[in-house]
Fold this protein.
Amino acid sequence: MKQYWLLLVAISGLGCHRELPPVPAHTSKLEVTTSYVDATAIGARTFSVAIQAPAAHSLFLENCNGAINWGLATPGSNGKTLTWIVMRDACLSAPIEIKPGASQSFVLQVPGQSLSGPAPGQYQLVVLGTFPTWSGSQPMHNPEVPREHLLSDPVVLGP
C-alpha cells in the first residue's frame, strides 16, 4: 500500500510547483474593409444614404425607374442576415453608374407601418444589386461587389 501512496505523491508532484510557459497573445490583425455606403437616419423610417465608388472602378446599381435595391441587416452579421429588404417589381431600367471616386446620394424610406415591416431597432443598411462592371447583354452575370463594402455603420429605425 505504501508503494501506491509514493507513486501517487510522485505523480501529483506534491511539493513541486512548476510555472507553465506563458501563452503568447494572439497577434493577427482583423482585416479592415472599406464601406462605400454612409447612411444617416433623417426620420423614424427614412435614411439619407451616400454611396461612393472606389477610385479603381465605377459602381453600377440595379434600379427600377430610379429606385435602388436595399435592405436592413442585423448588425455584426456582415450583411448575411437580412432582416428586411425593399420589395420591387421585376422592372429593370438602365443601371445607375457612379463614376470612380464620385458619390451619389439617395433618400430611402421604409414604407408605412405594415405587418411585413421591420421592428424598430438598430440595423445596418445594405445596398443590394451593386456591380463593378455592367453588360447590357448579360446584366445579371457580373459578380456583385462584396457585401462588406455595401454596409453602413449601424443606424436606428425609429419607433
User: Anything to note?
Assistant: The chain is about 5% helix and 35% strand. Helices lie at 2-12. The mean pLDDT is 79.
